[in-house]
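Example 9 (inverse folding). The structure is encoded as follows.
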């Protein structure tokens, strides 16, 4: 059966496709540079120290999302929602308030974590060093602000300024500096690598801020607008925070659990397998960076056919790419993991299990983005959170017995069930089919009154 694209949707998808290609190009480069960074670090550090780095990075990633207070997702929706309604001043205030909230929250969480770790070590001394916790604290604010700035700039129509400083320049600078230090005889510890990452990312944020101001994008934080903004959108932000935090925990808590319940060497192996499996969602993620504000704009304008067409394009393209990568992992995963070092090649089964869960993620399309952008953030947080939370409990119960294989199997099962559930919600309650079958729903989708 040959599917034709209606003429009124052709220009929309064509414009969106070119932006997706640009986003994909950046994300492909990002993935390659990120992989290079992990390979360089694992090859230049001892296995225990690389485990410290992997543990600290996973912890910092989760806490950085908490520091964002839901603002990266909120601004993607609120900028489109307010500008469609003609409220440019409110959209600008939302950007400024979100930036200020991220900065204040990031500093607070980092300081509190340092204090908690210091008191913990003082009362209950650890067998291992606690320096990787302090190293992670340095990364929290830069990571949180980098995520927020990216969302705020993408909401305003920027792509290169939003993505290049963090996704390209930072990931070039980090392995280059690590190799330079290694060549002069300086071998980094895990905490050293975390602090170096934070310093370089902070420099890239300064560069991004300068670029944004030069191009007249709104990015500057402002204290005075935080109160009114939070009074109006605080409840919404909390649900966005919960939803994003759940997703981040689902992607990083495994590494922390393995490190705490087994050992840091196993944490490093699981970290490499999970980051490798994440390459499957590269195309999906690149597409979602572009379509999030588009989905919000067309949905709130009542243009359901356009929203469905965008979702269908995203799911179909993302699944096709993910399926090809999954086949590569299944056939050559052992060799791919051996790039990190011979000790990591044994993670093939972990890689395949995690990749299978992410394949279902791609098959159900941009269901999370659709729920977040259309006012169903509470349902997303409840459905996805409950299922993935149950998965974490299962992991805690089986990791001592089944190790990293058990952790990967539990993650796979929970992710499959969660993604199918939220995709079903999108179809039945929102009226948008986000799955790979969504292409068949475009012609039958009807526009409605603006939200």
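The amino acid assigned to each position is listed next.
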């Amino acid at each position: 059966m040959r599917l034709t694209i209606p003429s009124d949707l052709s220009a929309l998808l064509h414009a969106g496709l070119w932006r997706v290609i640009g986003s994909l190009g950046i994300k492909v480069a990002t993935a390659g540079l990120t992989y290079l960074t992990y390979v360089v670090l694992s090859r230049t550090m001892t296995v225990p120290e690389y485990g410290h780095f992997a543990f600290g990075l996973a912890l910092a990633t989760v806490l950085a999302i908490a520091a964002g207070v839901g603002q990266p997702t909120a601004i993607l929706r609120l900028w489109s929602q307010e500008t469609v309604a003609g409220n440019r001043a409110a959209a600008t205030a939302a950007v400024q308030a979100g930036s200020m909230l991220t900065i204040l929250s990031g500093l607070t969480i980092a300081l509190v974590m340092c204090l908690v770790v210091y008191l913990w070590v003082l009362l209950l001394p650890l067998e291992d060093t606690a320096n990787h916790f302090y190293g992670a604290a340095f990364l929290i604010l830069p990571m949180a602000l980098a995520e927020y700035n990216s969302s705020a700039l993408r909401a305003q129509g920027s792509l290169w300024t939003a993505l290049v400083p963090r996704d390209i320049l930072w990931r070039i600078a980090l392995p280059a500096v690590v190799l330079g230090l290694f060549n002069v005889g300086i071998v980094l510890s895990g905490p050293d690598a975390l602090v170096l990452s934070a310093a370089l990312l902070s420099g890239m944020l300064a560069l991004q801020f300068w670029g944004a101001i030069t191009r007249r994008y709104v990015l500057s934080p402002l204290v005075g607008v935080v109160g009114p903004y939070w009074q109006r959108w605080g409840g919404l932000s909390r649900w966005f925070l919960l939803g994003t935090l759940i997703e981040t925990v689902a992607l990083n808590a495994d590494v922390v659990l393995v490190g705490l319940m087994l050992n840091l060497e196993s944490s490093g192996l699981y970290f490499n397998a999970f980051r490798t499996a994440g390459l499957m969602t590269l195309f999906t993620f690149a597409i979602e960076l572009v379509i999030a504000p588009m989905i919000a704009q067309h949905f709130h304008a009542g243009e359901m056919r356009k929203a469905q067409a965008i979702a269908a394009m995203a799911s179909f393209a993302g699944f096709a790419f993910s399926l090809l990568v999954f086949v590569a992992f299944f056939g050559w995963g052992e060799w791919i993991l051996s790039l990190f070092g011979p000790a990591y090649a044994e993670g093939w089964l972990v890689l395949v299990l995690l990749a299978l869960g992410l394949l279902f993620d791609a098959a159900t399309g941009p269901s999370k983005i659709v729920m977040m952008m259309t006012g169903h953030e509470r349902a997303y947080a409840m459905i996805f959170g409950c299922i993935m939370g149950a998965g974490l409990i299962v992991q805690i119960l089986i990791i001592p017995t089944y190790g990293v294989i058990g952790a990967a199997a539990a993650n796979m099962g929970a992710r499959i069930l969660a993604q199918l559930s939220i995709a079903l919600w999108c179809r039945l309650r929102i009226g948008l089919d986000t799955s790979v079958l969504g292409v068949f729903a475009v012609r039958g989708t009807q526009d409605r009154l603006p939200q």
